[in-house]
Amino acid sequence: MASTADIRNGLVINYNTDLYQIVEFLHVKPGKGNAFVRTKLKSLTTGKVVDNTFTSGANISPVRVERRKFQFLYKDESGYNFMDNESFDQITIDQKLIESADLMKEGQEVEVLINTENDAPLTCELPSFVELEVTYSEPGTRGDTANSPRKPIEVETGARIMVPLFIEQGQKIKVDTRTYDYVERVK
């Protein structure tokens, strides 16, 4: 058993018969009354984010998890298939457990959060930035430079992203996987 003093970002806890990861927390000590900890909890089964307040010193149940490096192999009707880089074991993860799944390309390395009690995958996290090739791009309108205009493109994984007008088909770009924002061209 742990207390609210052990709360940190990324900690996985058992709360209301579900596994939640702490996304954000703030320790608050008001001038009057008892201290408390405000948290944002993300459910690892549904992906829903919940706000919760714990009184200071309350008991929480942390769950032991490991981060392991996996390589994305392919997608089929059963889900996304990954291979452990150390043991070469293969696992299948459902699409709802993967954020930004449409930015993953074959051979890409990802981190998978594994529950050590039952070796079940909890979530899959892509790197913060990925490099992808533009497969479809409409030509930009010449002279339209007011207000930093953007156009939709499609990348090799099938995802659609808004980019500046000068990006053309065949170029490689860097994309932020958390926000789907264009970052820069890659040479």
Can you walk me through this structure?
- By secondary structure, the protein is mostly beta strands.
- The chain has three domains: 2-62, SH3 type barrels; 65-125, OB fold (Dihydrolipoamide Acetyltransferase, E2P), CATH 2.40.50; 129-186, OB fold (Dihydrolipoamide Acetyltransferase, E2P), CATH 2.40.50.
- It is built from no helices and 16 strands.
- The chain has strands spanning 2-3, 12-15, 18-28, 36-43, 49-55, 59-62, 65-76, 79-84, 90-93, 109-115, 120-125, 129-137, 150-155, 160-164, 172-176, 181-186.
- The strands form three sheets. It has a six-stranded antiparallel beta sheet, with no helix packed on it.
- It is flat, with a radius of gyration of 21 Å.
Basic shape: flat
CATH fold name of the largest domain: SH3 type barrels
Work out the radius of gyration: 21 Å
**How many distinct folded domains?**
3
Weakly predicted, low-confidence segments: none
Number of strands: 16
Which architecture name of the largest domain does CATH use? Roll
How much helical structure, as a percent, in the residues?
A: under 10%
Q: Given the structure, what is the number of helices?
A: 0
CATH class of the largest domain: Mainly Beta
**Secondary-structure element order, as H and E?**
EEEEEEEEEEEEEEEE
Largest sheet: 6 strands, antiparallel
In percent terms, what proportion of residues is strand? over 45%
- How is the largest sheet built, in terms of strand order? 1-6-2-3-4-5
Structural class: mainly beta
What separation lies between the terminal Cα atoms?
51 Å
- Average pLDDT figure: 89
